[in-house]
Write a structure and sequence with these properties.
Number of domains: 3
Strand content: 15-25%
CATH architecture of the largest domain: Sandwich
Largest sheet: 7 strands, antiparallel
CATH class of the largest domain: Mainly Beta
Oligomer: single chain
CATH superfamily of the largest domain: SPRY domain
Length: about 450
């Protein structure tokens, strides 16, 4: 009856009218409540000339995180309702603008939904073209395709990676990272140069080795002209960049800023519960057996949590080092060692750190384990790294800290490689493993 009345000329019935608290539309409430029949009834408006323009499938709940009906279908992992929404061509209107909790639709589906729903979102003819252009698509779709091993998804990903219109940087390196040997062999046979250096001076063969694709590495090394490391040295970690938009970074002027420098970070006040995340622009070189760096905390405002560790290139939104896959970190507020989302090491007051402390974080790439120090003393990590292996991929030193409504300021001295003027406080070498790490020498 309501639908018939809404379709009448001059009807004042608003099918998108949100509730008084969340401004959430009836369609969104039906999706959240898994009311498939109600969703079907509302979507029938597409068949009526009078009603099809009156239903907004991407109506945001402005009082509740900007969620849309699509977000609720993904959260509920309701594939039937998701398919109903995607089958309606009206879903394409404003699809790219639907962000929630600072995540675009692709990031949201990857983090909050299940594999079946994400695969459907990626391959549906109404959403595929939009989703494949969203920030983070290269690594998110690669990760997902690896999990579900969907041939159609792999084909779409490879096609998009190699599409000149996409302007993907170093596409052969992306294929090597994913271990797509058949695609690279095809490019080799076509005469394409598959030995280009990326921004870190890595070749695709280096990338294949870093991601443990042994057969692909051998193929690329066999065809690769001898690399002249004297001419094309691997880049060393030296410059910190923002992973998220927002923090203002200042660096002290020194003769050798890549070795030891004062890093200042200023974050304006924000109402959003979102930390700040910095990492070096340059990855740790692939021939490194170990990497160690130290941080001296000089100033921190508003009791902000300071975090230091290692991460990979892909970092999910609203996170801190150690809270997500591919990262681990030492957190100063509770002294915790956080590894890929898991919290290890009990809260012990002598392992927390603050202004005046010198903190070190190291990686042993032969064992895939990490270690940390405080004021020159190696801290016991017990068996925290069991079940984790940080020897696969590109890694970067990283820094994180929480944002507050008052704003945040932090000043630290970063020593990425020991010098005579700024030696490491930790004299090592000992990481508690059978194979002892070797601290990188001064340059």
């Amino acid at each position: 009856m309501v639908m018939l009345m809404a379709g009448q000329q001059n009807s004042k019935i608003d099918l998108n009218k949100g509730d008084a608290v969340f401004n959430q539309s009836p369609l969104a409430w039906a999706c959240e409540g898994n009311r498939t029949e109600v969703v079907k009834m509302l979507l029938v408006t597409s068949k009526s000339a009078q009603l099809q323009e009156k239903l907004d499938l991407n109506k945001r709940a402005t009082g509740y995180r900007n969620t849309t009906p699509l977000h609720h279908a993904l959260i509920e992992k309701n594939h039937d309702i998701l398919k109903l929404l995607l089958d309606d061509p009206r879903i394409m209107r404003g699809l790219g603008a639907t962000d929630c909790d600072g995540l675009n639709l692709l990031e949201f589906a990857f983090e909050r939904s299940d594999q079946r729903c994400l695969t459907t979102l990626l391959l549906h003819h109404h959403t595929k073209s939009a989703v494949f252009f969203m920030d983070g698509w290269e690594i998110i779709i690669q990760k997902h395709a690896s999990l579900v091993n969907n041939l159609e998804l792999w084909h779409e990903w490879e096609r998009s990676i190699l599409d000149p219109k996409r302007k993907v940087l170093f596409p052969i390196h992306k294929l090597a990272e994913a271990g797509r040997q058949e695609a690279i062999e095809s490019l080799l046979h076509s005469g394409m140069n598959v030995h280009e250096l990326d921004g870190d001076n890595w070749t695709p063969a280096d990338v294949a080795a870093g991601y443990h694709h042994k057969e692909l590495e051998e193929l690329l090394r066999k065809d690769d002209p001898n690399r002249k490391l004297a001419m094309h040295k691997y880049c060393q970690p030296s410059t910190f960049i923002n992973v998220y938009q927002g923090p203002e970074i200042t660096t002290s002027s020194t003769k050798e800023p890549s070795l030891s420098f004062v890093l200042g970070v200023n974050v304006p006040p924000t109402a959003e519960v979102m930390g700040s995340y910095l990492r070096t622009q340059e990855a740790i070189p692939p021939d490194s057996k170990c990497f160690y760096y130290e941080i001296e905390v000089l100033h921190v405002s508003n009791e902000t949590c300071c975090v230091f560790g290692f991460c990979q290139a892909f970092v999910p939104q609203r996170s801190l080092p150690g809270w997500h896959e591919g990262s681990w970190a030492y957190h100063g507020d509770d002294g915790g060692l956080y590894i890929e989302g898991a919290w290890h090491i009990s809260r012990e007051s002598d392992q927390t750190f603050d202004v005046g402390d010198i903190i070190g974080c190291g990686m042993n790439f032969e064992t895939g384990k990490g270690y940390r120090t405080k004021n020159g003393v190696l801290l016991d990590s017990c068996n925290a790294f069991d079940g984790h292996n940080f020897s696969r991929g590109k890694f970067y030193p990283c820094i994180g800290f929480g944002a507050t409504t008052q704003g945040t300021q932090m000043q630290i001295r970063v020593t990425l490689r020991a010098t005579e003027e700024y030696p490491f406080c930790f004299k090592g070498p000992n990481d508690g493993q059978t194979s002892e790490p070797r601290i990188q020498p001064s340059e």
